[in-house]
Amino acid sequence: DESSGYESESAGGERAGAAAGGSRGRQRRARTAFTSEQVCRLEKTFQRQKYLGATERRKLAAALQLSEIQIKTWFQNRRMKLKRQL
């Protein structure tokens, strides 16, 4: 049962938004499907440090072929998951 730490973004919000507002406004970005290798590397990095600086985030994003925003969001979601578990 491997988790990406990305569970807080639910598909239910998309359906509710579509029913209420239709196609107005910006469309929500599709959920990222992280590979198991990406998740493993992200988790290992998270175990070492809970917060990444800009330089570390840039390097990790390049290494994993993800955007810096995806890395930032993953770490935010992972910290919230840890907070819920404690």
Structure explained in plain terms:
With 86 residues, the protein is mainly α. It has a domain at 36-85: Arc Repressor Mutant, subunit A (Orthogonal Bundle). It has helices spanning 12-21, 36-48, 54-64, 68-85. It is globular and about 40 Å long.
Name a few traits of the molecule.
mainly alpha, VENT1 protein, DNA-binding transcription factor activity, RNA polymerase II-specific, 0% strand, Arc Repressor Mutant, subunit A, single chain, 86 residues, DNA-binding, globular, 4 helices, HD, HD_metazoa
Short description:
The protein has helices spanning 12-21, 36-48, 54-64, 68-85. With 86 residues, it is an all-alpha fold. It has a domain at 36-85: Homeodomain-like (Arc Repressor Mutant, subunit A, Orthogonal Bundle), CATH 1.10.10.60.
In whole angstroms, the N-to-C terminal distance is 19 Å
Q: Helix-strand pattern, N to C?
A: HHHH
Total helices: the number is 4
Low-confidence stretches: 6-20
Judged by helices, strands and strand pairing, the structural class is mainly alpha
CATH superfamily (homologous) name of one domain: Homeodomain-like
For the record, what CATH class of one domain applies? Answer: Mainly Alpha
Rounded average pLDDT: 82
- The quaternary structure here is single chain
Shape: globular
Computed CA radius of gyration, to the nearest angstrom: 15 Å
Query: Which range does the strand content fall in?
Result: under 5%
Strand runs, count: 0
In this structure, how is the largest beta sheet organized?
none
CATH topology of one domain: Arc Repressor Mutant, subunit A
CATH architecture classification name of one domain: Orthogonal Bundle
Helix content: 55-70%
